[in-house]
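Box S1 | Example of a co-folding query
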Amino acid sequence: MTALQEEMATDSIATSAGPALMLALEQAAADPTLSHGIRALMQASARQLRAAGDAIDAERTRYRALFDAVPDPVSVLALDGTVLDLNRAGIAAYQRPREDIIGKPIDMLNPELPKGHMGPVLDALDRGETYVIETTNMRADGSRFPVEVHSAAFCEGGQTRIVAVARDLTARHEAESRYTSLIEGIDAGVTLHDAEGHLHYMNAAGMRITGVSVDESDVLRVPDWQDWMVVDEDGRPLPFAKHPAARAFATGRALSSQVIGLFRRSSQRLVWLSVTAVPQFAPGADKPHMVLTLSSDITNLKRDNALFGRVQELAQIGGWQWDRMTDALYLTDEAIRIVGASKAPSTMTAFLACLRESDAHRMHDVVSEIDEGTGFELELQGYQRDGTPFWISMIGESQSDGPGADQLTGTVQDITDRKQAEDSLRVQSQTDALTGLMNRDAILAKLDSRLSDCSSNQLALLYIDLDRFKMVNDVLGHGAGDVVLVAAAQRMRDAIGTEGLIARFGGDEFVVLCNINDNAARPEQLARRIQQAFAEPFLLQGEEFNVTTSIGIALAPTDGETSQQLTQNADVAMYDSKRRHRNGWQSFSPELAVRQHERLQTETQLRRALDNGEFHLVYQPQVDLRTGRIIYAEALVRWRNPQLGEMRPDHFIELAEGTGDIIRIGDWVLREACLQMRRWREQGLPIERVAVNVSYRQFTGENLAESVRQALQEADLPGSALELELTERVLVDDTPHTVAVFKQLRALGVQLSIDDFGEGYSALNYLRRLPIHALKLSHSFIKGVPGTPSDNAICQAVAGIAQSLGLELVAEGVENESQRDFLLRLGVTTGQGFLFAPGLLPGEFAKRVAAQLEPA
Ligand code: C2E
Ligand code: MG
Ligand code: MG
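Box S1 (continued) | Returned holo structure for magnesium ion
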């Protein structure tokens, strides 16, 4: 029997011997054979013993109850490791009956502890310490569970005993493993620093992000921090004191979601992190001793964000989101830039304040009334804080994301450039580029709107045409023409002031639109002022040029109720004014319109007349005034039209000049007259030459000399058989072109004379410079002789000029003998007129010439 077993045996004797001894004492005390004193002593001892036994019982019961009430397994061991007692929790934990354990070595419960493990335990207990060890306990079925065992020594009955409390660590280990797998599995870096900046812990994600690693012994291998630079959200170096962990240490407060960049110099790699730092306090401490940081890698997010921002910037499209319930408005950076507010609007109300009032109302109405699932698109104008106007296109739609949410989201696009381009295009499209005045479309639009506006329907339209502008253009070139137009526009603008709107209608035509409600005389007043503005000559290439205006006036609604009617009638009036006298004005009248209509009809007929063979020539004899003998012929064109009848050139030559048909008609006259001469010559008729009238336009046209040359060649005539009658207008121009044409014609041997001399222009200097051989004294002067002294004087003067310059003189329109006598007295020997013959058909003319040949 071991000492321990012996000890246990005495203990059990002591506890089990109590009642037997008591019974023996009680029986002895009742023995009558014993003396009274001894019996009394025995009885007292038996009572004492009973009382002590009761006390021990009570203590034992209390001990048992306490022992079994401890929730962790508690065992009492002898120093050799024999289990002396085990509480109920132990029996339950090891799942063994009590007798399986009591008296057995504790090793059966601790399969992992090495032999002799009691050594260190006893050492610690000797030192009066508690011994703590983590190990594994085993159940009856062999299964194991982790425990933390706290052992302490105590003395019982002179014997040292060990009480061992085993705490089941299963739940703690499970929690720890859950925590570890969470921390290690999480996609965010978790680190623990102390106040000195030493790193105590870093999870796998943290290591991945920062490049920190652990060595074989699980010690953190801290990288070279010199290789790293910490930057703020905008990429600027961040001083250490502003690092999230440093701030958490300094403030003792948690700091959430600070964005920093970790730039690694060696790899030139930048990692963006969103860091939350939480200070850790030791129990009772008022300063943190550690900081736990949680860092999410937002590099991709930030890149996408930056890209998204850049894309918005490039596209000039921002985004917005508005919560209708709270009025909270979120705008992206680009959206904020576009509206250029001093403070980013955080409510729709603040946003609307950036817009011009009418647009703010429009936007407000739309966003407050829009139904769920529908959208809108608006173009709005607003003003940035510095007053710069902006234009935006707002697109949005309503979407409710679940209960309570009532949101509108959309885009805001900067369309300022487009709007400004549209504006300037609109201005451009309404402006005449040369003069800066309104153009035709613009003034017609204004006219239309004024005509449709009943309150201001008393209007006048002035149609203005520059006289002689075409000549400036033809002679001095288009550059000079442009200068005149610009200067003319300026003069008219000044003349009109604020009393009317002026526009360039086309070419050298302008219109002025004015109101006459308050002043019926305004159109004439403006016309007069405009004409006065042209009194001063224009200075072009160092020379003075007179440009005048012809103006037509039409009133609304009298002369037209539509812009088309009104402009057309003002044009009719202008045309009439120009036709009758340049530099004047003319109001429209219905008669004018009739005349204009007829003129148009005539022009239409005239255009086809040549192809229809409607022209023919008559020839008026030019005679020797002394004898009446026919010497020359003047070809005069006649037009016989099926609708209009026989037309004299007075009626149609001017029209043909206007339409340009005169060139073809003139060519035809030239050829026909020459061919007629040829026929007469072949008939042996002594007609020296035929005179053909040449109009201004024919003369200034490209190839008069060439036409003449061809006509002569075709008829096989010498130049001397042809005379060209030119109007004074041709000569007044006196340009290099005029001189050149004269030269070419003279080179062909053609005779040149001035028709209706003295009627048109007074400048006579051309007579000295140009190769002219004859003047024709206009019948307008002959008409008055010899009765009218002024006509007599003019006739005398012209005769004098011709004589002194050595020019022939032919008198026109000689109708009676007294005129003939007068002319003869002046020394004029050649003439034509009804006194001798009107224009004759070629056959008649030939007959008369032939008659002269017959002997009297
Ligand atoms: P003009 O060249 O001065 O022609 C003379 C005009 O006076 C002719 O009128 C003629 O018929 C008219 N006349 C002749 N004798 C008398 C008279 O004693 N008293 C009056 N009162 N008149 C007389 P016509 O043929 O009607 O021609 C008118 C103008 O038309 C011409 O004036 C001429 O400038 C132009 N003309 C005629 N034929 C042509 C032509 O083929 N080409 C061009 N370019 N112009 C032409
Ligand atoms: Mg003539
Ligand atoms: Mg004439």
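The pocket of C2E (ligand 1) is lined by residues 620, 636-637, 648-650, 653, 666, 669, 693-695, 725, 755-756, 779, 812-815, 832-834, 838-839 (CB under 6 Å). The two ends are 204 Å apart (CA to CA).
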